[in-house]
TrEMBL record:
Gene3D superfamilies linked: Ribonuclease Z/Hydroxyacylglutathione hydrolase-like
Organism: Sorangium cellulosum (strain So ce56)
Protein name as annotated: DUF4336 domain-containing protein
Domain of life, source organism: Bacteria
InterPro entries: DUF4336, RibonucZ/Hydroxyglut_hydro
PANTHER family: METALLO-BETA-LACTAMASE DOMAIN-CONTAINING PROTEIN (PTHR33835:SF1), YALI0C07656P (PTHR33835)
One Pfam match: DUF4336
Source taxonomy: Bacteria, Pseudomonadati, Myxococcota, Polyangia, Polyangiales
Amino acid sequence: MPDGALTAVVDDTIWTLDRPVWFSGVRMRARTTVVRLEDGSLLLHTPAPPTDALAEQLRALGPVRWLLVPNCWHHLGTPAAAARFPEARVVGPASALDRNKALRIDVDIHDARFGELVPELEALPLRGVPFWDETVLYHRPTQTLLGADIVLCACAKDHWTLRYAARLTGFYERVRVPPDARKKIPDRTAAARSIRAMLERPAQRLIVGHAEVIEEGWRDGLARAWRLEGVEV
Ligand SMILES: [Fe+2]
């Protein structure tokens, strides 16, 4: 697979693109997920900085109408993407604005208006973890959950720095809550309610920012990861 190529996850509807990102001394894979909506337009979940090659690939799939910032961390490529796709609306949490002065948000992800504007997506906020302020999306047509940081999992494909950190902190070939958030779950009851809502969706797969696409056993993996942090789901 050439660098920067989109990988199809669901034919004609969902693609992913992974790019390397250095974070806290390790090289992670950061994912952008592209969803083709029923009107033919595209939603970019965690937009990558748009290279010419990516913009060309996207143009062949449809017009980019939505740029989605899923939590207050996954905003880095969005200002550049918003400049590249000026007709796209940015949806995300207001908390991300504090972290990125170049970011603009047109629709707050916690506003019910988003569900009215894009009815095929259901917003499932993760309450009780303000450190992330994450909202997972359930894409009804493909029965896909789209998250960012709610869990992660490293594997042999990852850079050695991440494999090393993952072995030390328990997420090598194992779905876990990211180590930097484990001590930042002030309301476990609220988090449990939110994770349960995700588990109840009839999803066939879970796509997150830093793991392979999780299909078989996604429900067990997600539930086990949060139970390890004292969240009773
Ligand atoms: Fe992340």
